[in-house]
Specification:
alpha/beta, Aspartate Aminotransferase, domain 1, Aspartate Aminotransferase, domain 2, 2 domains, five-stranded antiparallel β-sheet, 16 strands, binds 4'-deoxy-4'-aminopyridoxal-5'-phosphate
Length: 450
């Protein structure tokens, strides 16, 4: 192993980081995480902190699940790779497909198409939505509608339905025919509506209005996260997803639930859609499917969509997209073990209890610190804290102060994530009560340093 200074220098010289300025590492060295255990990570200086980010909303089982590690490792020696393009398959991929459909049966999902991650899954789902309508004889249904503040990955399709202009403007023009509705974000919205149920109705009405304007015969699908994650942990009213489902149904529009973060227990239910009592037509999944131990994602399809594909003439029904690593045997072995561990540990139940504890703890901090403008969460282990420099004016907190709070929280024992002027948290779902208390104490120290 190279010495620490060498690592820092080589990182600054050669490694470009996603979502970061390539010159930044030269002036502001990133933390180099060397090892992890339980829900904690250790940097190269030997500083151990609780990982309240869960890697990147993905390490649901924590860092020490040996069952998943062993399954991945064994499979590496059995069959380290084979393609699943039409004509070949492999045993772990088949087992994983069974485990996945079993896990999502209550959501009505019966088929899975594996990808290498969430962005791939979103892109594939959008393609499948267009193809579904084409196969049904409605080839004009090509447009997509999504929510502002939504995050759906960074491929061209995902970026096009993304609802944060930071991820869009640099790379425009994006996919034509993508339209965005307001987010169910009570703290700031164009309707100045603070009642979440009324805001949900306003957005459903805006959805109807947009559909009428575009014409329903041109719209393929609506995609949303059940709880918006990267956009700031935006928890809608419990009625919201149902209302959007009803609008989709009225106009023959497919509903895609992007479960890349919400799936696998994070919301306190096994899926975000189930948490809100909704059955979508398709789902996109990734992250918690292997607890982040191996890159895997997928598109889930219910019978309504599957029947159209499976009964289509051979020339039309083929899925002309896919990845070298779709249904990768090592990843698939990880999926089988991870789903089995997720169910055995009943991580959703702990996520619900610890999520409430974290949310209530942060709400108490909001009584102490004026810089806390909004606290969002309380539905599983996703918590967002929006920081402001002026509570009455809701002025977003400046970057330097955000960085100072981040560093002070880290020094006090917890890694959190910054998303603009939000602190975002999504700790492993196996976190203990004492560890959640420790996160809250670290945040207290972080805010004191603002
Ligand atoms: N959809 C959602 C809801 C996500 O949160 C993410 C990643 N944070 C993605 C899609 C993209 O996934 P990936 O980074 O694995 O490509």
């Amino acid at each position: 192993m190279k010495d620490d200074n060498f690592l820092r220098e080589m990182n600054a010289r050669h490694l470009w980081h996603p979502m970061g300025h390539p010159g930044e590492a030269q002036v502001n060295a990133p933390k180099i995480i060397k090892s992890a255990e339980g829900v904690g990570i250790t940097d190269i200086d030997g500083h151990r902190v609780i990982d309240a980010v869960g890697g990147l909303w993905c390490v649901n089982l924590g860092y020490s699940n040996d069952v998943v590690k062993q399954a991945i490792s064994d499979q590496l020696f059995q069959l380290p790779y084979y393609s699943s393009f039409a004509g070949t398959t492999n045993p772990p991929a088949i087992e994983a497909s069974y485990a996945v459909q079993d896990f999502f049966a209550e959501d009505g999902m019966t088929r899975v198409f594996f990808t290498s991650g969430g962005s791939d899954a979103v892109d594939t789902a959008l393609r499948m939505a267009r193809q579904y309508h084409r196969l049904r004889g409605e080839p004009t249904r090509t447009k997509f509608i999504s929510l502002k503040k939504g995050y759906h990955g960074t491929h061209w399709g995902g970026a096009s339905v993304n609802g944060n202009n930071r991820f869009r403007i640099t790379y425009e023009p994006l996919l034509p025919g993508c339209y965005h509705l307001p987010s169910p974000y009570t703290y700031r919205n164009p309707f100045h509506e603070t009642d979440p149920a009324k805001l949900a109705q306003n957005i459903a009405a805006a959805f109807e209005d947009e559909i009428a304007f575009q014409d329903p015969s041109t719209i393929a699908a609506f995609i949303m996260e059940p709880i918006q994650g990267a956009g700031g942990v935006i928890v809608p009213d419990p009625s919201f997803m149902k209302l959007m489902r009803e609008v989709c149904d009225r106009h023959g529009i497919l509903m895609i639930s992007d479960e890349v973060i919400c799936g696998f227990g994070r919301t306190g239910d096994w899926t975000g859609a189930r948490h809100w009592g909704v059955k979508p037509d398709m789902m996109t999944i990734a992250k918690g499917i292997t607890s982040g131990y191996f890159p895997v994602g997928g598109v889930l399809v219910g019978d309504k969509v599957a029947d159209v594909f499976e009964n289509a003439p051979a020339a039309d029904g083929a899925i002309w997209t896919g990845y070298t690593y779709s249904a990768h045997p090592v990843g698939a072995a990880g999926v089988v073990a991870c789903l089995s561990e997720t169910l055995r540990l009943d991580t959703k139940t702990n996520a619900a209890a610890r999520g409430t504890q974290l949310y209530e703890g942060v709400c108490k901090l909001a009584e102490k610190y004026d810089i806390i403008g909004d606290v969002r969460g309380g539905h599983g282990l996703m918590t967002g804290i929006e920081l402001v420099s002026d509570r009455a004016a809701k002025t977003p907190m400046d970057n330097d102060t955000m960085k100072r709070i981040h560093q002070a929280t880290y020094e006090a024992g917890t890694m959190v994530r910054l998303g603009a002027h939000n602190i975002l948290m999504s700790p492993p779902l196996v976190i203990s009560e004492a560890e959640v208390d420790q996160i809250i104490a670290s945040l207290d120290a972080g805010f004191a340093a603002a």
